Amino acid sequence: MRFLSFSSLDFRLHLLVRANLCSNCAQICTLFGYSKMAEVAVENGNDSITRVLFCGYYFPASHNYTREYLQSYPFIQVDTVALDEVPDVIHKYQICVVKSRRLDSELIAKAAQMKLIMQFGVGLEGVDVDAATKHKIKVARIPGSATGNSTSCAEMAIYLMLGLLRKQKELEISVKQRKLGEPTGDTLLGKTVFILGFGAIGFDLAKRLRPFGVKILATKRRWSSDSLPSSDSSFPNDDIDGLIDKKGGPGNMYEFAAEADIVVTCLTLYKETAGIVDAKFLSSMKKGSLLVNIARGGLLDYESVLHHLESGHLGGLGIDVAWTEPFDPEDPILKLPNVLITPHVAGVTEYSYRTMAKVVGDCALQLHSGKPFTGIEIVN
Ligand SMILES: *[C@@H]1O[C@H](CO)[C@@H](O)[C@H](O)[C@H]1NC(C)=O
Ligand SMILES: *[C@@H]1O[C@H](CO)[C@@H](O)[C@H](O)[C@H]1NC(C)=O
Ligand SMILES: *[C@@H]1O[C@H](CO)[C@@H](O)[C@H](O)[C@H]1NC(C)=O
C-alpha cells in the first residue's frame, strides 16, 4: 500500500470534489487506497478517529510495524509524512512520533489537537519539552530496558568492538586480495572497557561483556539504586558491584579513559554531554585505544576525533550514530582504515521494533478510549 501524506491527499481530495467526480468521501478514499480505517469510520457515520503522525520516512519499520499492529482498529489512523511537510499537517494529529524531526515551540504551537509527543525509543533531544508542557501536551519516551531496545543496542556495541578489534575493513581487503591468515586481530579477553554512561544500555552491555573476560569501568551521575535500570528482575541491583570493577562519577571520566583499551559512549545527549568526548578526553585515552559510539553522534567532537584518528592516537572508531544523519558517505573520517559506521541500526531489530510498535499502538488505543497511557515514560 502506498501511504499518501496528508497534504497531498487533501490536495487530491480537493481537486476531486471540485471536479464532482464523486460526492461520497468513502469512495474517494477507496480510489486512492486511503486507509480502510477512515472508510469504515465514514460508513458508520463515526468520524471519531485518532490520528497518529510519524515524522519522516527514515526507520521504516517503526511506522510499518505500528500500522500492522493497529490494522484491525479502523478508528486509529497511522500516517507517515515527509519531514518538511510536518508543519503543514501537524494540527490534524493527536499523537506524534518524532523520530529525527525537531519539534520546536513554533511547530508545537501549531499542534492544536496534539495530546502526546513521543519518541520511537529514548532520544527526546529534538523536542522542546517546555513548549509542549505549556500547550498541555505530554512528552514521552519508550524506556529501552522494557522493549529489548537496550539489549539490541548492547549487542551492537559488542559487534562494533569486535569489528574494530578484528579490523573488519582490512579483513574485507584481504579477502579481495586472496590473502590468508591476515591481518592479526585482537581479543576482547584481557581488555579494559570503559562504559561512559551507565544507563539501561550500559547495564545490558556490562552483563554481556562479562563472559568475554574483560575488566569493566563505568561512570554514572548518580549510583543510587533507584536510578538503576530496574525492569530486569533476573539481575538484582545489589549485583551491580559484581558486574563493574570500578564505578565512578563524571569526575572520574578522564582517569577511567586513561585506563581503558576501549571506550563505549552510552550517554543521553543533552547540553552537558554534547561534545563530551573532546580533545581533552581523547588525549587522556591510551594510545591505540578504541572508541565506540552507539548513543548519539553529538556526544563526540568531530574535529577532535578526526585529528586523533589521523595522528594514530585513536586506534579505531566504531559508530552507529553520526554528527549529521544520514551521514555523508564521502566524509573524510570514513576513509580512514579503522573506522566502521552503521546506519543507526543499533536498536533496529525485529524484537525491539515489534515491541515498541506495540507500545505506540497501545498508546493510540488508550488515548482513543480515554484510558491512561502505559509502557511509556512521560517526562513532563
Ligand atoms: C466511534 O468509534 C469509537 C471507537 O470505536 C467509539 O468509542 C465511539 O463510541 C464511536 N462513536 C459513535 C458516535 O459511534
Ligand atoms: C515498509 O513498508 C513499505 C510499504 O509497504 C515497504 O516498501 C518497505 O519495504 C517496508 N520496510 C520495512 C523495513 O518494513
Ligand atoms: C532504540 O533504537 C533507536 C534506533 O537505533 C534509537 O535511536 C533509540 O534511541 C533507541 N532507544 C532506546 C535505547 O530505548
Automatic annotation (TrEMBL):
Signal peptide positions are 1-19
Q: Where is the D-isomer specific 2-hydroxyacid dehydrogenase catalytic domain?
A: 63-366
User: Keywords, A to Z?
Assistant: Oxidoreductase, Signal
* Domain D-isomer specific 2-hydroxyacid dehydrogenase NAD-binding residue range list: 159-346
Q: Name one Pfam family in it.
A: 2-Hacid_dh_C
Instruction: Name the InterPro entries for this protein.
Output: D-isomer_2_OHA_DH_cat_dom, D-isomer_DH_CS, D-isomer_DH_NAD-bd, NAD(P)-bd_dom_sf
Highest taxon above the source species = Eukaryota
Q: Which GO terms describe its molecular function?
A: NAD binding; phosphoglycerate dehydrogenase activity
- Protein family membership: Belongs to the D-isomer specific 2-hydroxyacid dehydrogenase family.
Tell me the protein's name.
Uncharacterized protein LOC109719719 isoform X2
Q: Which gene encodes it?
A: LOC109719719
